[in-house]
């Protein structure tokens, strides 16, 4: 069952009240951006109330689901960051450095990794990706950092 039933019920109550206020406030005019009508404020508050209710319910459920599934935030965030490092660094750092940094960041997602093993893997995969995509396939991506060229 849910870890904190009261929080889930409170969140669902906020959602229900927010939806009810939104439905009741539809009869009021919202006006124009220059001259807001009487329906704008209740609609905005009802939207905030629905968002708050969803957030409260999800926080109460999240902890229980994370414990049951064994979800850990560190790997999820670091692997996502590794993809971002590659995507944002490709133009400025070049293919080799972007792949190497992506490997290092993603290897940090798992605890107990050897630093030397991670460095060797980053160098090997950076070289392999550079050889495959730059030399063999001829993709038009920079191989080295822009400031080194």
Keywords summarizing the entry:
149 residues; mainly alpha; 2 domains; transmembrane helix; DUF1468; Tripartite tricarboxylate transporter TctB family protein
Describe this protein's structure.
With 149 residues, the protein is mostly helical. It has 2 domains: 5-61; 73-148, no CATH class. The chain is 72% helix and 0% strand. The protein is elongated and about 65 Å long. The protein starts with a helix and ends in a 13-residue tail after the last helix. The model has no long low-confidence stretch (mean pLDDT 87). This is Tripartite tricarboxylate transporter TctB family protein. Residues 9-142 form the DUF1468 domain. Pfam families: TctB (PF07331). The chain crosses the membrane at residues 12-29, 41-61, 81-106, 118-137.
Write a concise synopsis of the structure shown.
With 149 residues, the protein is mainly alpha-helical. The protein has helices at 5-25, 40-69, 73-107, 115-136. Helix 1 packs antiparallel against helix 2.
Major sheet: none
Q: Note the beta-strand portion.
A: under 5%
How many separate helices?
A: 4
Low-confidence stretches: none
Count of beta strands: 0
Nearest-integer average pLDDT: 87
Order of helices and strands: HHHH
First and last CA, distance: 59 Å
Radius of gyration: 25 Å
Shape: elongated
Helix content: over 70%
User: How many structural domains are formed by the residues?
Assistant: 2
InterPro entries: DUF1468
Pfam families: TctB
Domain DUF1468: 9-142
Protein name: Tripartite tricarboxylate transporter TctB family protein
